Amino acid sequence: MQRVLILGCPGSGKSTMARLLAARTGLPVIHLDRLYWRKGWVEQDKAVWQAQVAEVLAAPAWIIDGTYGGTLTQRLAAADAAILLDYPRWLCLVRALKRVLLGFGRARDDMADGCPERLSLSFLIYIWNFRREKRPRIADELRRFSGRVIVLRTSAEATRWLNSEDVQTTELPRVRA
Question: 12 with 89: CB under 8 angstroms?
Answer without folding.
Answer: no
